[in-house]
TrEMBL record:
EC number: 2.1.1.107
Pfam families cross-referenced by the UniProt entry: HEM4, TP_methylase
Keyword Transferase part of the UniProt annotation: yes
Keyword presence, S-adenosyl-L-methionine: yes
Group of enzyme by EC: transferase
Organism annotation: Thermobacillus composti (strain DSM 18247 / JCM 13945 / KWC4)
UniProt-listed SUPFAM superfamilies: HemD-like (SSF69618), Tetrapyrrole methylase (SSF53790)
Key words of the record: Methyltransferase, Porphyrin biosynthesis, S-adenosyl-L-methionine, Transferase
Protein name: Uroporphyrinogen-III C-methyltransferase
Any one GO MF annotation of this record: uroporphyrin-III C-methyltransferase activity
Cited InterPro entries: 4pyrrol_Mease, 4pyrrol_Methylase_sf, 4pyrrol_syn_uPrphyn_synt_sf, 4pyrrol_synth_uPrphyn_synth, 4pyrrole_Mease_sub1, 4pyrrole_Mease_sub2, CobA/CysG_C, Siro_Cobalamin_biosynth
PROSITE patterns the record matches: SUMT_1 (PS00839), SUMT_2 (PS00840)
Length: 515
């Protein structure tokens, strides 16, 4: 068996979008990923199906895995011929022990590649509004470990040289030793009034910043109960925070939002949340897929073969458009065969999906649900007509029933089916710890499937677990399903659109975000 290859990848400081393009490639192509708590769990969503996950961080019944054990895992996995990505917070060569792991691989003759990452020593202060260098304040910066005990710190660091040889000092992992660090810096020449900042969980929704001076920072850390992990910045550049603070001013800063849409649709909602400074956590309660089985395929094929007989072609979702086109491709059909049909859409996103493929819907309802669509197209509906409805298997029956009442024959085809999603143990832990502030629902099916998914994961009372979060529903029908499941709806926009939902979430958070 040929040996595999190991990629030592820097995940960046926490914000998953700060990973490099090369790092993302390594995640997507690996057979095994070896990761710890400093790497964003959202990066794991890019793994290919079937990729193995090996967590080497701290567990309730175990301290952080020893470096020798991690080295052994990397070697063993590569010797099995696997492509391994070792995902490490920040940069693997900046106090990340990437050099030690590379040496272990070289000794075994295993090919490896080091993929640099955005180091927290620079990125975390930047997210707190602190540039580590500034033309008028600091022309140099030193990055120093602060994790070891005081005696070892004093062995490794020449305090007399470090204190005075550089403008800005950045200590990584030094919260537990902050008093010792401050006293040593004062002892070797830094004024007691020198500004200092501690930034905890920088670049994430949990980012917290504590500012003081060398003289009072230890007392402030104790009073605030400030805990690691944190980056410590010492120097005049800390004063820039008052002018340059930006991340913490964004409307959704501090809000971790659970996005329960199917993964193929989650991108738009997640992007809007991120734009406002929130941290979207994608936990799709449902996945959509092509229906399986000969009966389903035969039914769809028969309906498409009668393309010229339809007077109306009605789409009620973006998925309906996407999967309808996929079935046309599968059967080798031409959309132009539907030339007789008047095309209608529920909601602006569905209409936009149609326009992207060159189809202009003739009817757009003022209210974005099936009943509103029917009201908007009543003048075009005549008894004896036929309407094709490409939808999902969980679509409501109100629209076809209303069409029948008007004398129109509805032909329903389930072009996609909705199934519960799997995985997501890390997100379950966040829910139990109160680490998610808002949960979003964009359809009644996302409510039902999330409740089902939580039960399948061993949660006895999903409503109680979700009771610690604010429920955001896209509209009345979804809200009704949430209440039926025992949930209290705190957020519902006046219009059933993603933009309106995000705006309502931002307004809610503005009144409740921690100071």
């Amino acid at each position: 068996m040929s040996k595999g290859k190991v990629y030592l990848v820097g995940a960046g400081p926490g914000d998953p979008k700060l990973i490099t393009l090369r790092g993302l490639e390594c995640i997507r192509m690996c057979d095994v990923i070896v990761y710890d708590r400093l790497a964003s769990p959202r990066l794991l969503m890019h793994l290919k199906p079937g990729a193995e996950r090996i967590y080497v961080g701290k567990l309730p019944d175990r301290h952080t895995m020893k470096q020798e054990e991690i080295n052994r895992i990397l070697v063993e996995q590569a010797l099995q011929g696997k492509i391994v990505t070792r995902l490490k917070g920040g940069d693997p060569t900046v106090f990340g022990r990437g050099g030690e792991e590379a040496e272990a691989l070289r000794r075994e003759g295993i090919e490896f590649e080091i993929v640099p990452g955005v180091t927290s020593a620079v990125a975390v202060p930047a997210y707190a509004g602190i540039p580590v260098t500034h033309r008028d304040l600091a022309s140099s910066v030193s990055i120093i470990t602060g994790h070891e005990n005081p005696e070892k710190l004093d062995e490794l660091i020449r305090w007399d040289r470090v204190t005075n040889a550089t403008g800005t000092l950045v200590f990584l992992m030094g919260v537990a030793r902050i008093g010792h660090i401050a006293r040593q810096l004062i002892r070797h020449g830094r004024p007691p009034g020198t500004p200092i900042a501690l930034i905890r969980w920088g670049t994430t929704a949990d980012q917290r910043t504590l500012v003081g001076t060398l003289a009072d920072i230890e007392d402030k850390v104790k009073a605030a109960g400030f805990e690691p992990p944190a980056v410590i910045v010492v120097g005049d550049v800390v004063r820039q925070r008052d002018k340059l603070m930006w991340y913490e001013k964004r409307p959704l800063f501090g809000a971790r939002v659970l996005v329960t849409r199917a993964q193929a649709q989650a991108g738009t909602l997640s992007q809007r949340i991120e734009e406002l400074g929130g941290e979207p956590i994608e936990y799709p309660a449902i996945e959509t897929r092509m229906p399986e089985g000969e009966a389903a395929e035969a039914s769809i094929g028969e309906a498409l073969a009668a393309a010229e007989t339809y007077d109306h072609l009605i789409f009620t979702s973006v998925n309906g458009v996407r999967y309808f086109l996929e079935w046309l491709r599968r059967f080798g059909q031409d959309i132009r065969r539907f030339h007789r049909a008047r095309i209608a859409a529920v909601g602006p996103k569905t209409a936009e999906a149609l326009r992207e493929i060159g189809l202009a819907p003739a009817a757009l309802p003022e209210t974005f649900h099936a009943e509103g669509l029917l009201d908007s197209m009543r003048e075009a509906v005549r008894p004896g007509q036929r309407a094709l409805l490409p939808r999902g298997d969980l679509a409501r029956k109100s629209l076809p029933e209303a069409l029948r009442a008007l004398g129109v024959e509805p032909v329903e085809i389930d072009v996609y089916e909705t199934v519960p999603a799997g995985g997501g143990e890390d997100i379950l832990d966040l829910l139990r710890e109160g680490g998610i502030q808002i949960v979003t629902f964009t359809s009644a099916s996302t409510v039902r499937n999330l409740i089902g998914r939580l039960r399948n994961a061993g949660v006895g009372d999903p409503a109680a677990l979700l009771g610690r979060t604010a429920v955001a529903s896209i509209g009345p029908l979804t809200s009704a399903a949430a209440r039926e499941a025992g949930l209290t709806v705190a957020i519902e926009p006046p219009e059933s659109t993603i933009d309106a939902l995000v705006a309502a979430i931002a307004a809610y958070w503005a009144e409740r975000r921690p100071v």
